[in-house]
Design goal:
Number of domains of chain B: 2
Distance between the termini of chain B: 87 Å
Radius of gyration of chain A: 18 Å
CATH topology of chain A: Immunoglobulin-like
Strand content of chain B: 25-35%
CATH architecture of chain A: Sandwich
Structural class of chain B: alpha+beta
Strand content of chain A: 35-45%
Distance between the termini of chain A: 51 Å
Oligomer: heterodimer
Strand order of the largest sheet of chain B: 1-2-8-7
Number of helices of chain A: 2
Radius of gyration of chain B: 22 Å
Largest sheet of chain A: 4 strands, mixed
Order of helices and strands of chain A: HEEEEEEEEEH
Order of helices and strands of chain B: HHEEEEEEEE
Shape of chain B: elongated
CATH class of the largest domain in chain B: Mainly Beta
Number of domains of chain A: 1
Number of helices of chain B: 2
CATH topology of the largest domain in chain B: Immunoglobulin-like
Helix content of chain B: 10-25%
CATH architecture of the largest domain in chain B: Sandwich
Chain lengths: ~120, ~140
């Protein structure tokens, strides 16, 4: 894969693993990730085979003519990789970003939903 | 469980990344700043102080900011999701609840001139130094 200058300069930056919640509902898996500083333009979501990658890029603000007084948290890009089971409908994953929080809706495939109903009826 | 295998490969893909993560987590846990939540960053010069806090998912209308002398206090809340029948968390790492934190500023500030912005989950506050405390330059007159 060709690297751009931007990619190379990013290599020296720290990458953080965002905190996530994963909620399972009847029809979907909902994934929520805290990615402060990221908006819809700076987030990348890719599905390759069974790997779901979420990646958020940060443009760190450089403050001129000031010195650091307190430094309790680091700033960097975000990345985290998840393995999808076959029960996720890859073609219909939806993503939104608001107030620095990424929300992904991973729908369960018709097959997975049908299977679930079957199990309930047998019980 | 449908999500049982989620993330299984995350660490296998790049064990060094995982090592780095554990290492930095340990480092952060041991540093005294870890005791207070949420962590803040602050910059200053002779004119002002600037403070940033990462509070993603918080509604800005509910953020309260108070400045008295050289103390900055902010309060905010992030409400937990209300789960419906049959919904379950398979992973829950994000914080929820009401939080408040006070920090000491490097000088007294003009409370009525404090500017606060909230963008992409980051709260940014600019606190101008009190006029009376600003360092004064004294020009030397040539006789």
């Amino acid at each position: 894969m060709a690297e751009t200058v931007k990619d190379i300069s990013r290599k020296n930056r720290k990458t953080y693993s965002p905190a996530v919640d994963i909620l399972e509902t009847t029809n979907n898996i909902l994934l929520t990730a805290d990615m402060p500083g990221v908006d819809e333009k700076s987030v990348d979501i890719t599905v390759e085979k069974n790997l779901l990658t979420i990646h958020g890029m940060i443009d760190p603000t450089v403050h001129d003519n000031v010195e650091t007084a307190v430094n309790e948290y680091g700033i960097g890009d975000y990345q985290r990789v998840f393995t999808l089971t076959d029960e996720i409908d890859r073609d219909n994953i939806k993503a939104t970003v608001r107030n620095g929080v990424l929300k992904l809706v991973l729908p369960k495939s018709e097959k997975a939903r049908a299977r679930k109903i079957e199990v309930i009826s047998e019980a | 469980m449908l999500t049982r295998e989620l993330e299984r490969l995350e660490n296998l893909l790049d064990p060094w990344r995982e090592f780095d993560r554990i290492n930095s987590d340990l480092f952060e846990m041991m540093s005294p700043a870890r005791c207070e939540f949420p962590p803040v960053n602050m910059w200053k010069n002779d004119e002002k102080a600037m403070v940033t806090v990462e509070i993603p998912g918080v509604e800005p209308e509910g953020v309260e900011i108070e400045v008295t002398g050289d103390t900055l206090t902010f309060r905010f809340e992030r409400k937990p999701e209300e789960l419906k029948e049959g919904e379950t968390y398979t992973r829950k790492e994000r914080w929820y609840g009401q939080f408040s934190r006070s920090i000491e500023l490097p000088f007294n500030v003009q409370a009525d001139k404090v500017v606060a912005k909230f963008s992409k989950g980051i709260l940014y506050m600019e606190l101008p130094r009190a006029e009376a405390e600003k360092p004064k330059k004294i020009s030397v007159k040539v006789e």
